[in-house]
Fold this sequence. Notes:
CATH superfamily of the largest domain in chain B: Aldehyde oxidase/xanthine dehydrogenase, molybdopterin binding domain
Radius of gyration of chain A: 15 Å
Strand content of chain A: 5-15%
Largest interface: A-B, 59 and 61 residues
Structural class of chain B: alpha+beta
Mean pLDDT of chain A: 96
Oligomer: heterodimer
Helix content of chain B: 25-40%
Radius of gyration of chain B: 27 Å
Strand content of chain B: 15-25%
Strand order of the largest sheet of chain A: 2-1-5-3-4
Distance between the termini of chain B: 56 Å
Shape of chain B: globular
CATH class of the largest domain in chain A: Alpha Beta
Structural class of chain A: alpha+beta
Shape of chain A: globular
Largest sheet of chain B: 7 strands, mixed
Strand order of the largest sheet of chain B: 11-12-9-19-16-17-18
CATH topology of the largest domain in chain A: Ubiquitin-like (UB roll)
Number of helices of chain A: 6
Low-confidence stretches of chain A: none
Number of domains of chain B: 3
Largest sheet of chain A: 5 strands, mixed
Number of strands of chain A: 5
Helix content of chain A: 25-40%
Amino acid sequence: MIRLTINGKAHQVDVDPNTPLLxxxxxxxxxxGTKYGCGIAQCGACTVHIDGAPMRSCSFPVxxxxxxxxxxxxxxxxxxxxxxxxxxxLQHDVPQCGYCQSGMIMAxxxxxxxxxxxxxxxxxxxxxxxxxxxxxxQVREAIHMAANGNAKV
Amino acid sequence: xxxxxxxxxxTSAAVTGGLxxxxxxxxxxxxxxAQDGSxxxxxxxxxxxxxxxxxxxVRSEMGQGxxxxxxxxxxxxxxxxxxxxxxxxxxxxxxxxxxRPWGEFSTGGSRGIRESHEYVRKGGAAxxxxxxxxxxxxxxxxxxxxxxxxxxITHAKSKRRTTYGKVAEAxxxxxxxxxxxxxxxxxxxxxxxxxxxxDTHDKVNGKMTYGIDLKMPGMLNAAIKACPVFGGTVKSFDxxxxxxxxxxxxxxxxxxxxxxVVADSWWQAKTALDKLPITWDEGANAKVSQESINEMLxxxxxxxxxxxxxxxxxxxxxxxxxxxxxxxxxYAYPFQNHACMEPMNITARYTPDxxxxxxxxxxxxxxxxxxxxxxxxxxxxVDVYKTMLGGGFGRRGAYPDDYxxxxxxxxxxxxxxxxKMLWSREEDMLHGRYxxxxxxxxxxxxxxxxxxxxxxxxxxxxxILAAVRPEVVQAQKGRDPLSFQGVFESGEHQFSYTVPNxxxxxxxxxxxxxxxxxxxxxxxxxxxxxxxxxxxxAEAAGKDPLEFRRKLLANNPRGLGVLNAVCEKIGWGKxxxxxxxxxxxxxxxxxxxxAGAAEISVKDNKVKVHRLxxxxxxxxxxxxxxxxxxxxxxxxxxLSALFFQECTVKDGHIEQTNFHEYNSMRIAQMPKVESIxxxxxxxxxxxxxxxxxxxxxxxxxxxxxxxxxxxxRTVPLKNxxxxxx
Lengths: 153, 725
């Protein structure tokens, strides 16, 4: 049994300790907002926060996540209020197909925590997620919008 | 067991799936209903007592915004409250029962809006007339005295008003009027406005259900591996080697070429599949290499036999031989995978009485046909329930023996159990429906004044239709008209330029690698070929490439319009900033006129793209905000292909297995795309999702030539040591 804390809730899972955290989140815990895209930490669709830092959960063994604080896209909103990044995303109509957007939003939220007023260069360095629809300019604009506190829905 | 579809399909306030049963009888009291029980007013809308408007959409949403655009068109004529609009996907099974009241489901070729705008607007208009009539009947006044706006019907004379929701039940029982006149586009209030998408909310909180996310009671998960060599088959596999692994329920052969492990969880299934010993019979295709394919195509460049796609003037070869100056170049474009972010998947459940599948498809009816064939059941025992698509780009169209067929063949071996089959990224890379491979030889003739008098464009390579719609190719006496997208003799893909002596022909050279539709498909390479070569010709003629083209575009005012727009915006003719170089391109595709311009700098083979301009004249712009996003997104897709993407063949299989070998642009590499949306109206609507994709690559290639003095004629640029920074 591995004990996990996901979005503030305790879970016990009975899985092979080498199972990637992504698949435990999706299949055992049942939170499917975190997506599978490549399985080799290339695309970022599986990004979650582990103790506040963005992590590609497809390449992170569940055993290493034991005892750590895990946040997924479903846990980003607090007290029924969307995170400012989510609000900016909504206001700026960022997603197209939307599949990569959970990971994109988690990466953006981690960036803003680290750098509340990121420059374009900061965004370029921190947001390395693949988006095949090509939402990049909306992503960039929405991050600036969230940083400036202009994101209200 | 009758499952409640809502539990797994209604995942968003905006996007619901499936319809309630029941359909309109000619004279009876039965009324068709939406899933929430609201009555259908005509086939396109169902309105609940609380005024919620369910608009039916049968085209698939894959990010392109089609559900929002189509809903705008219906709502414009319906005169309903936009804030109360929801979308409902009718199923193909329902469509068959009701004799296709919603028309074509297939979502490709940038057709979603341009080919259904008229009938969906008529659907909205008919519903409005029925609702007004129902109110008038209730008040016993002439309908002509009533007006409708924002879901409210008013009879001004008697100062009475009611809402759509209150009269919907009565309206649903009225005959559907035919050919209600549509609004003049000048009076549109909702169409043409940059309204927000209807499907965003659940895409920012993780709640949107994609096929990969489906959950059902008793569902198992499958991982699958098909013979890496296309055309190869399964010789044997040792199920015992993995059958005792944790969670494994069954190891099954799927068709003649694939093996799957069915387990409690997908990770268990995949882990077991990786350990499963499988022996393949790879067959003769295992001898095919990239070099052998390239050689076959090369031979086609000078072959005697070729299908003509465009011919003007007399004998082009004679005209070329008499030219004052002759320019010749050979170009090549590779196989490419779509690499949708969501790998292929589908969930299937089979019993002898019913076969159903759930998941992402660009073509509900195509998936339905695949389920019919694979299940062997009749149409009234089959259905398909669509989810949101995590990307499509043509990959999720209807192809023979693809993922839907696999899932049904698997489900038949475990009757009653829903099985979610998910391809790994590696499987997705090895079993694509690839952008066709093509080479092209261009020969141009200039007269003493540097005017283009003759042009021969010879394509040599693969045909998509020969593989997926052979009957179309047969009807054209062996020609695949789609090979000429963007350079065809007439129609939605008409060649932009008027050249006195012109021949564009195609030596069809098909390979064992299955081809597919790939965002724009053949406009991508055709634009690279012709728009690079136009610059080569202009240089040989000693002319400015814009002036050179303008003359040849004299009969194409809309093409000239978009080209002028991008050139003006990027500042063509004025000096570029220090160290920066510009290029541009123009094409007609899917009945839209598109042009692109790029400004780049190059240092030590590292390319920085500083500016990108994209212009489109699609006739009508239903939602400019979404068009803006499609233009920008298409440039990301097109430039990813230009810089990074190539699938190569070794021993009969594709070599690239994941994003580390098949890269895609990141945010740091992509400037803001300055889009120019310039619809000029007319009777023909153009597409949006695909056309602009093709102009980004040649615009960058032409700028690259100016920056380096070296003309690059093969894609991708990584093969030339060029990086994108």
